[in-house]
Amino acid sequence: MRNNISIIASVALFSCLTNTVMAQNKTISGRITNQAGNPIVASIFLQGNFKIGTSSNENGDFSLSIPQNSTNLVISSLGYETQTVSINGNLLNIQLQPKGDFNLDEVVVVGYGTQRKGDLTAPIGKVDMGEMVKRTVTNPMDALQGAVTGVQIVSSGAPGSTPSVRVRGVGSFNNESPLYVVDGMFMDNIDFLNPNDIADISILKDASGAAIYGVRAANGVILVTTKKGSLNMKSKITYNGFAGFQTPTNVLKMANAQQYAAYATAIGNDAFVKSSVQKFGGTETNPAMDTDWFKELLRSKALITNHNLDMMGGGEKITYAMGLNYVKQDGIMDASNMNQKYNIRMQVDAKVTDWLKAGFSAHFNNFKTYSPNNAAFRQAYFASPLYPVYDPSLELAKPEKFGSSTAIGMQSGFWYNNPIATAFYNTNQTKGFQILPTIYLEAELWKDKITFRSQLSQRYQSTHNINYNPVYYIDNDQRNDRSFLRSAQARNTNYILDNLLTYKDQADKHHWSVLLGQSSREERWRETWVQANDVPASEEFWYVGVDAQGTGSATGYGERGSRNAGISYFTRGTYDYDNKYLLTATFRADGSSKYQTKWGYFPSIGLGWVLTREKFMENQKLFNQLKLRGSWGKLGNDGIQPNAGYATVYSGNNYSGIFGSEGATNGTRVPGYRVGRFFTQVRWEVVEEWDGGLDFALLNNRLTGTVDYYHRTTNDLAFSRPIPFSWDRVYGNWGSVTNSGWEIGLQWKDKVGDFGYAIGGNLTTLKNRVKNLGGLENIMNGYPEWSAEFPARIELNQPINFYYGYEVAGVYQNQAQIDADPIAKRYNQQNPNTPILPGYLQYKDQNNNGELDEKDRVNLGNYLPTIAYGFNLAFDYKKFDLSIAFQGVAGNKIHNLNRAMRRKYNQMNADAAFIENLWTGEGSSNTHPSAKGSVAPWNLQASSFFVESGAYLRIQNIQLGYNFDLNKIPVRVFATADRPFIFTKYNGFTPEITGMGFDANVYPIASSYSLGVKVSF
Known about the structure:
Shape: globular
CATH architecture of the domain at 107-230: Beta Complex
Number of strands: 54
Low-confidence stretches: 1-23
Oligomer: single chain
CATH superfamily of the domain at 107-230: TonB-dependent receptor, plug domain
Distance between the termini: 45 Å
CATH topology of the domain at 107-230: Ferric Hydroxamate Uptake Protein, Chain A, domain 1
Largest sheet: 22 strands, antiparallel, barrel
Structural class: mainly beta
Helix content: under 10%
Radius of gyration: 33 Å
């Protein structure tokens, strides 16, 4: 009993003490913004007791429990003046003032370190991460489209696909992709990352900023820093996710059955029209069968979803962060077609002693992709609407009763195959995982002056690809009599060891820093594959081995790989006087195992002058910041073929012979070989670039912007050239190419009462010219298998890979016009059986010699935009916000190979616009040929008729958000539309064409519509 009384007394006493302590505390909350009313992430501490503190969230909101007698809070944020605020009441709204010149103290990630924005002498693109994560995309680079000057991003609609990224044009025939550096690790892309995991992206565009990466930097460098915790940061958990659907947009309208039948009749090829009518009904002018192949091939809605959970925080000596992410994107092709990935991100930093820090971070990525057979899109353009997707009357069709073009008497062959069957009988799955661990030690050898950091970054990636084709039969051409399995295993194993010594100091108005660095790296890649026939259709048997089923007729085994290593030494020095006169100089020596020339040397220098810190600018009221910049440097590109300084052996039928033939008995083929006699020493391509720029902020920091002019020349351009009087070609460093242009970025921000708004835009121009081809006048190029008919050309003082052909002057309207034209008159005399007729294209006689010859072929444009731009609008009112982003290009051309293929396949269908605009009589059209002319060889030559404008304007993103507190928990709900509208004159699914701009029906880009929520605890 006595014990029970003691327990009750103790509990009562503890409750009283607890209530007393709680009564002595109070909770205050508030919001932190800047002058324009935009939220700021800031640190909030109790003055005199920095153990009591928190940080504001992305909406600027915070909540903090403090003792009752507390008087002041200390608020600090990077780029803003630290402010001491009196505590009056329980609700505080705090506005921070910019620190010095606007945003000059903002930290920007540069190669192997960071710098104040005000100290930069290079045009480094800084990505607004708040805007980036508004876009419902699964690849971070897709989210940057139209957002950064000097960077062109060409997207693909296929799930899991990698967009094409070009920084300041194209300076190589081999590799145009930038280098990605993720927390110190070199990567070929950042597809595995989720945008919500990224804290910062900096794009090193010019030689001054990128030269510190040497032989890997010629195409630009994209630095990615993932999210980390902060010291004395209250633990924070954030969920950010959305779910929605994708839908096809700008779907290409094809000719319907009635239009197609009329066209087939007009060209005199209508036998299959009659066959379709006989089999499926209707009349020859209005057939009953009318299949819309693109409608059948595309899903009306495809799932896209993204769920991200972040946890981060920190104490006095340890910070941590962890992220979990799940993404799934179904393709809009109605087939086995999707991408799914899981990401886990971890990071821990620890202050071991007063002078030693240590840290570990890791990315784990698991993914699965089902890749579609994109040939189905091409076949859907060709396919006749006069036969059905399924045809139960075809007794031999198995296992599905797919329809066949040959059933109505059409030609057989790949181009006329049933596109739905092509998509259906395809299994191409890739599964894999990737691990990126990083560990570092950082020692402060001299407090606030000298630090040494050693970091080891690794990458291990393993992928397994299964490609399976089952047994099926549709017709004698579209069939597979034996199942086929290809199983391929690939492994990437890379590491980078960086050692960095940094010295920073100042004396009076002089500030300087010196970085000394050494880096070692090794990259290994190996792929092994096996192939087999007669493998059962069930996935449990999709393996090849001694005891595996269906592998008795194994048809192949192979292995390939690569391995290279490098070592580098680099240094960077910075100096400024009174934050007014700026100097940055870098130098890197790169050693590589890929070439006989082992070492390359890459210097750069940048200068800056902050005019607003001069005395003669003290009394002016217009500019808050005005800085002039100039830079020069050299970069390398080792993304070309490794050194070929050894004899190459060729084999094949050209070098073999048949021996032992006697009577009707065939002899034995004896393989023959030839040794290539020519080779040269290959080395990396070298880019030399200079840049001049201006950074400014004016009108009380409401208008900010940058202007740059750049000029970059790629020397030692590598390509293969023919050897005179020989069939041989030799690969070497022969040419040069220049890229130059302007980059302009502007942004206006302001707030009127509760209404805030922002308007921003960027514009980039590009002039690309080939300057040297090693003595050659030109090089012919083009789309594989079609380069002879529709060539691209590389020529001195012209842009890379321009379309080469005749310029169409109009359409012959009558016979008198034909007789009056020397070209047509001469042609008709030489070709009386296939003369030029009214309704045929008229080509321009460039040299006025009265005949159409090679000298009349001209530059018809190329795939590189001369102008790329983006602009955005943002509005917020109280708890609502709305943002709209636009993106577009101009000056580029697309070669519409879909229409051009009619040269060989005259039974193919056509897009409705092509049919509707055909010449039907005098005065009906001066741009399109007649129906008969559309299949005549005269009109199917490489010409401007097949080259169309690639200009477009796309509404890239619209997001409407609402921010509120739910039991003091900040919540944001939002609705997003990604790529909902596009304005273009191009006659195709999309004007975004990768490669050289030849459109052979690419995977179309979809619009996405989603709902999401973000909650922070």
